[in-house]
Protein: RNA helicase
Amino acid sequence: MPEKVHTHFGDEEESAPKQNLQAVPEPTEPQDAGRKKKRAKKRKRDESNDEPQPKPRDQELPQTVKTLSTKTAQKEEPIVDIQREVPAESEVADAPQPQLANNATKSRPKTKSKPLTDTKTNFTSLREKATKLYELRKKLPIFGHADEIRKNLRDQDVMLLVGETGSGKSTQIPQFLVNEFWCRPTPAKIPQKDGSSKSINVGGCIAITQPRRVAAISLARRVAEEMGTPLGSSSPASKVGYSVRFDTSTSPSTRVKFLTEGMLLQEMLHDPWLTKYSAVVVDEVHERGINVDLVTGFLRNLVSGKREGRGGIPLKVVVMSATADMESLLGFFQEGFKAQPQIQNGETNGATGSKDSVRDISVCHIKGRQFPVKTIYSPEPVHDFVDAALKIIFQIHYKEPMPGDILVFLTGQETVEALENLVNEYAVGMDPSLPRVQVLPLFAALPQAAQQRVFAPAPPRTRKVILSTNIAETSVTVAGVRYVVDCGKAKIKQFRTRLGLDSLLVKPISKSAAIQRKGRAGREAPGQCYRLYTEQDYLTLDETNTPEILRCDLSQALLNMKARGVDDIVRFPFLTRPPREALEKALLQLLNIDALGDDGSISDVGLHIAKLPLTPTLGRVLLAASEHGKECLTDVIDIISCLSVENIFLNTSSEEKKEAAEAARRELYRREGDHLTMLMTVRAYAGENADRKAWAERHLVSHRAMQSVMDVRKQLRTQCRQSKLLPRDDRQDQYHDPAPVPILQSFLCGFATNTARLVPDGSYRTVVGNQTVAIHPSSVLFGKKVEAIMYNEFVFTNRSYARGVSAVQMDWVGEALAGQ
DNA sequence: GAGCACTGC
Structure:
């Protein structure tokens, strides 16, 4: 065996499995060399970031190994696997859950969740099921805290809750609270603008927000079962429902409602005081998506103000997180209370308790249920984490007993596929007396069927090796994993305000992400986590992930705030305040598209755009298209639907397939560029009535993405009909020839600053800023030279790329820029 | 010559 496989990360007390490792065959030289060169070239990009790279290590590492004391992983939670099933926190090994498996449905509206029983809801069997589940609920770590939690919220309006993995918080908290006296609908008089007052019922329902759709739906399903009630719209008596985009399932009697953060924000646009709710539970705050920052900001204003829009009736707020970083949240809400004058007696209609304690905030820690996971660091910095992972994978496989699958965290599709090939090559010559390995790639762009393979049990005497991107960190849980290999890096998207450019770069992960990854090894049994970096490196990692609000374009968030009546953005209570420059840039962008008036207040155009489920620029394009008539608008809706969805065009590694698909796709290509090509694709897909899936496969188009496109298209058309931009009569599409000029000019209304012109040296330079930009290879205009281009996205990966590109005329660009 | 992960009346 060549020296390079000697790397050993094992425990001191265990002898190095050298002999075994030496049995691992090295692939033949030429192949290996060629492949390595290619890979090295490819990976160079990943590593050529602003981050300092660890020095190349020597060929052989010392066999000393540092082993961190076995700490349990602290983080994480809802954890729903791709099969869209049960949240892991409620899973109990011996739980009988026959129905859950059968009821696994996708979150698409077409496959709406079936009633839990036959057409006639069988309440007796629901109750019996719930009674059984109650025995399991009693064993959850949070169950003993029920009284404490109830008492906290009787006395106080805000509670912060740290719940480790498997504590049961997401499913149990709503059930603890739903029968509290303050959770009943309460009559209240709401003062109106004209001085009169209106009597309504305030409260009665609990909202629980989730960052992801699948989590919202599967938690709702689980809680409905535990409460012995039908789910959502399946029965008017249903007490538990959910609401996510394209799929809302509630009933008139819904008391517990799981929804995505985005959905709650949308509800707040129509009902800023959340009058339907007695409590809002914000779950998974540690993930810190931008929506959760907006939600907490709005909620802080709501709980610390005078609640005039709720007739003085308090709103209870529970903020739940898996990390212990509760101090900043505590400070955040306390600051809100401090800034407000003390509430006088009598103004708090429902709440009892002393005046002073009403404003206190309780903090509650719940232990999780996790097995210990041993951390094993690399003794020296790792230069090539793909090679290092390869060695560790086989070291584990040779040394550790079955069962116990291996989950490897990598940065992206490229590294996943590179390692997949390597492991397969090495596995070919493995000692036949050893268990086999089954390599399973996992990344978001992988077709659904291939993703599902990860969840299938391995064949007998086979160890699964799952090579995954970040998708397995939060969104997907794979059962059976006892070994985690963590490369310590992830691709992170960062919006650079000054350049108006999104960068997708490989960066070191945070400590909390490292803990999260490690925790994946301890869900079913004690596990091990091999970190492909030194303990020293670990200690220098940031504590937490950079909140999205510091990494993204803020225009949509600001428009939402303006639409909610937040006039002074600077005084908005941000959990993390974005830099002034980023706020100004977003305001400027909103001004440019006429969403704001010169005084910074929201315009009619802005109000309209804010209600669309689109970025402000795409919303502006839609409005612009409506001025060119109905045909232009429907065409632009088709294109916008594609742009607001993941990439609809697939790629394949197989050359023959590629050529066949290229040929099939050719009929869709339009020389005007990607926008018109998308239009032709949507038309062809929508016009395919026989077998859309087969059509998609033939054209190497993502069926999954196209289903989302059709969902968005339907939603946008409905909204346009409601706002009278489209006529009500819903005639079947009479396809006209598309008119590229008005379509592209509509796009320029939103994207005038996303334009570049051809310069004499044959490259493109941005019209604003004069930066070099290349047409992305995925574009139909790749390699083409046109007078000027307009693009949907400006992304930096290994260089600056324009994506979603169409040819435009310079004088159109001039007009569009002048119009701003 | 290239595709981290989420999400929206």
Notes: Residues 612-732 of chain A form one domain. DSSP finds 28 helices and 23 strands in chain A.
